[in-house]
Amino acid sequence: MATLESATSLPAQALDVTVTPKRPNLGDTLAITIKPDPGEQLTQAPVVKVAGKKLPVYPIATNRWRAFLPTIPLEKHGRRSLIVTGNQRTRNMMLWIGKQWFRTQSIWLPPGKGSGTDFEFDRVDAFKAIVSPKKLWSGKFLRPNNGPLTAGYGITRIYNGDYSDPDYHRGLDYAGWGGSPVKASAAGQVRLVGYESKGFQLHGNIVGIDHGQGVNTVYLHLRDIKVKEGQMVRAGEIIGTVGSTGASTGPHLHFGLNVNGQAVDPTPWLKWGFQ
After folding, report:
1. What are residue 225's DSSP bridge partners?
2. Under a CB-based contact definition with an 8 Å cutoff, are residues 261 and 124 in contact?
3. Which of 60, 95, 98, 171 could form a disulfide with 25 if both were Cys (CB 3.0 to 4.6 A apart)?
4. Dihedral sign, CA of 199, 151, 29, 164?
């Protein structure tokens, strides 16, 4: 089944709507790009709604706009309505989000390592809610550590044998040796710095970078942190080192990427990137 379907047949749309990737699955980030047909002007941001929910829309070039739709493994696969309105014209379309299979993994944590604090959850939630209008990244995101990938995105996690409350792995794990450098995956502003000694019992020492337009990355379980909140960083700049702080079974980096507050698969951002 096509992933982008027109729900109406109109002779002149006046809006050109493109969705990538063409065959998305749960966990993917969908980029919805809007531009007017030749000879038309689109001087104000169009309104984009998916399944009735309005998405943030940003200009990415002259007469060209884009919205991101994040998807996560906890959602149901299938159809989503897509309605784009601009210049008093409306495109009624349909998206298809495919089902994705994720394996199950059992994790055994030492006593006292499995739960976090309200303080750290509040700080992380506030960070994920940041939406800066200016796009700070450019092109593909960089791999933040050279260690081997040991756990992919979306894995169903069972902690200490408790099957009653499974969760999904919200990023990628790199088993870098302790003390190896952790690099900023893209340019942005450091908006979160937290330490295990100050209440970040689950995340451990953590850095969060805002890349603009609802996109941010997080770097967990660090040994050392080499940046401060408010600092601007370049892609590839060292922001800390691999450690085993927080809920960790050994030295590794957990790398997460959030779009509009949702933890999506970082892999497409590392492989192809988004404009």
Report:
1. 240
2. no
3. 98
4. negative
- Distance, in Å, from the CA atom of 169 to the CA atom of 156, rounded to the nearest integer, reads 6
Residue with tokens 């709604």: 49
How many residues appear in the chain? 275
Average pLDDT over residues 142-168: 80
Task: Please state, in angstroms and rounded to a whole number, the distance separating the CA atoms of residues 264 and 69.
Answer: 10
**Would you state the structure tokens that stand for residue 28, as one six-digit string?**
């993917």
For residue 162, count other CB atoms closer than 10 A to its CB. Answer: 10
Cα 84 from Cα 272, distance rounded (Å): 25
pLDDT of residue 269 exceeding 50, the answer is: yes
Of 96, 91, 98, 100, the C-alpha closest to 80 is 96
Q: Kindly report the number of other CB atoms within 10 A of residue 263's CB atom.
A: 21
Using CA atoms, how far apart are residues 155 and 206, in angstroms rounded to an integer? 21
By the 8 A CB rule, do 57 and 67 touch?
A: yes
Give residue 40's identity as a one-letter amino acid code. Answer: E
Helix, coil or strand: residue 12: coil
> How many angstroms separate the CA atoms of 44 and 62, rounded?
11
Query: Tokens 């702080």 — which residue?
Result: 245
Predicted local confidence at residue 114, as pLDDT:
58
pTM comes to 0.90
What the block records as the tokens of 119 is 């303080």
